[in-house]
Each structure stands twice: as structure tokens, then as C-alpha cells.
Amino acid sequence: MVDAAAAYGTDLATRCSPASMATVKSQLNNDADGSCADSVTRAEGLMFQAFRRSGVVEGVAGHLDKRPPNFPSLPVRSSDVPV
User: Fold this and answer.
1) Which residues of the chain have pLDDT under 50?
2) Predicted local distance difference test score (pLDDT) of residue 51
3) 72 near 55, Cβ under 8 Å?
4) Which of 19, 37, 69, 82 could lock 62 by a disulfide, CB 3.0 to 4.6 Å apart?
């Protein structure tokens, strides 16, 4: 089971954009105590925002070219920058 989890984590790290993973983590943190309906509504809005990011083009291109996508890194955050 640990091997499967590690393989899944590697797959996420190589095939998912850092911006999308950050959005998922944020939603999990922000919606943990909310209703399912509110979470679905928020997820739909976040999905439409994600479709406008440049990572979508690279993700599709990587898939069509049968190669790992080359997503841009997220900017570095510091404690001096409000979240």
C-alpha cells in the first residue's frame, strides 16, 4: 500500500500543475468544515478559473506529446507576504 501511495504522489508531482495542486490544497483546508453543496459550488468556480491559466495549454500539450508537462513553478512565499 505504501508503494502505491508513493507512486500516486509521484504521478501527481509530475503530471499536475503546481498552481492546480495549490488550489486543491487550499480548498481542502478552507472547505473542511463546510457543507458539501458549498464545496461543490466553490470547486466549480475554481475549476473555471483554472481553465484560464497557462498551465492548461502545457498540460494538454504534454498529454498529446506523450511527455511530462513542464509547468512553471509557483512564486516563493515568505512570511512577509500575506496569503
Assistant:
1) 81
2) 87
3) yes
4) 69
